[in-house]
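fwd from M.: "can u put these together and see what the complex looks like"

so here's what she sent:
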Amino acid sequence: MNNGTSNTRAADGPPPAGHAAHASTRERLLASAADLFYTEGVGVGVEALCKAAGVSKRSMYLLFDSKDALVAASLENRAPMYHALTIPPADDGRAPRARILHVFERLEELSGNPGYRGCPFVATAVELKNPEHPASVVARRNKDELTEFFRTEAEHGGAADPQALARQLTVVFDGASARSVVQAQALDGLAVTMATTLMDAAGLD
Amino acid sequence: MNNGTSNTRAADGPPPAGHAAHASTRERLLASAADLFYTEGVGVGVEALCKAAGVSKRSMYLLFDSKDALVAASLENRAPMYHALTIPPADDGRAPRARILHVFERLEELSGNPGYRGCPFVATAVELKNPEHPASVVARRNKDELTEFFRTEAEHGGAADPQALARQLTVVFDGASARSVVQAQALDGLAVTMATTLMDAAGLD
């Protein structure tokens, strides 16, 4: 399932013959797939996908066992970029409250982007409707990473129940991004206000 | 687009010849479509849809201009039932806080149902990724109805800013239902706790 990781690992040793061309087809397919799935949904067919990536179906099936595996790998591959859009770098010297608010400020900005289609992890899980699908597993793990970021900050900030606050903040993130999709408009401070209220109530400094 | 309404209107006058059979095909198609779109997503093809409903494609296209129109009409048709699952009846004699909490208590219950796939309005909008799609318009209007329910109750309960609280509660509803889908588990009190905290902060009695 996780072809993204195995490819990275291959780079540790000497590249096999044809590795560069292989990697480039793979990367192109992963990038095209991530773009298409985000803008049109994971229901996009293999035909359209290969066409957009300029890759033959045969090449696709040599690289990925199934479309399901490609959906999962493309989400996994794009995950670090998605996280970097909202989660601040470690040790940026700011207090936990500011670091948590950074996530919601960035979400508010992203929601004003005409191409914004909500949280890619939530969208994937909601579209697939199957918690066992390999891409739903990727989605769940990545939402857990956001919750873990919140929990760590909440703990540093002295929240009464860091895990509870972290789950609440994740709900605000997902609910606010869903709202922005449903309403087709930017958030206008809603997410930041809610995060602030919940941090205050949880006794975070 | 809104075939659901035009059919209701037709019932005001004398039924045309063949009306009963026509209405029954229509109702069967709307019900099958709503079920299938909720459990498998709005990407389900016309072929599969007609097969599940036991209706020919020709009959479907006589009743609906397009699949898009059917997606919208089936969501609209099911909307009163969806609302009744969470929104309490008018004038049940309870205080605004209890009436608002009713929505979240019901959501917590629903999220424990193995067939729960999240809020159908949010799911539809997130899957379609197009705010102009007739079904996205239906979704938006129905989320606005939930917000309006919260706003009215928040006003009766003396909240400082009823509209702001109503939007926050809608975000909790959507974020919590998304979480239940992503995590594939029941909510365990999260939505009720968040709603309570936000109502307290907003000064609702």
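replying to her w this: The radius of gyration of chain B is 19 Å.
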